[in-house]
Amino acid sequence: MHNIGILYLNESTDNVINHEFLSQKYNIIELTEDSKPVDELHAVIIREEETSDLSTICDLILKIRKQSQCYIWVSTVTESSVGKLVYLQLGADQVFEANREIKEIGLIIDNALCRIGQENRPNQSIEEISENKSMFQLNSSNISVVIDGGNEVVLTKLEYKIAELLLKTPNTAVDYETIYQQIWNDDSLENKRYRVANVVYHLRRKVETNIKKPKFIKTVRSRGYMLNI
Known about the structure:
Layout: E1 3-8, H1 19-22, E2 27-31, E3 43-47, H2 54-67, E4 71-76, H3 84-90, E5 94-97, H4 102-120, H5 126-133, E6 136-139, E7 144-147, E8 152-154, H6 157-168, E9 174-175, H7 176-183, H8 192-207, E10 217-220, E11 224-227
Parallel strand pairs: 1-2, 1-3, 3-4, 4-5
Antiparallel strand pairs: 6-7, 7-8, 9-11, 10-11
Helix pairs in contact: 6-8, 7-8
């Protein structure tokens, strides 16, 4: 599980980041300005309380950058925060407004942290990547997939969308919430994980020789699914 540090400059702030939502997928650690080295953190969110915090946040970004290459996000009080450009120039990865939807913030975090696993894997040559992807080729015109260069299998639209999403980050887990939001994006629906699992089950029946021991679509326990190619 990834570790995310959250730093508030004012402990009495009413506009706090929704820890409960983020803690469903990440280990949330509350930090202070005097926190010890952050080398065990994968990301840090700094909460700007007022525009006068500019100098303090600049110092914090520089301090963190000396200790770690983790992601740094700054949550600002206003859309026109004067510090946005300065924060980015000093090494912040992204600056967003504090009133942004927590689910949108969650997707920003998901998309960034999912790259950590990719960056830590040994580099593959262009030939290796091409060869691996030829094992699982999607055809958008026919809404189908070709397995190992063999027969073409027609998919439903939902099956195709999930296969396409997993193929974007092969050999990297995509969590249930990300899959659901990318495919359905409707919070009014119930049983989100079941909906994802049900489509994956039917997709496996079409692309796997043995669905009890899937070769391509692997389950990553307590997280989601991964396309193994």
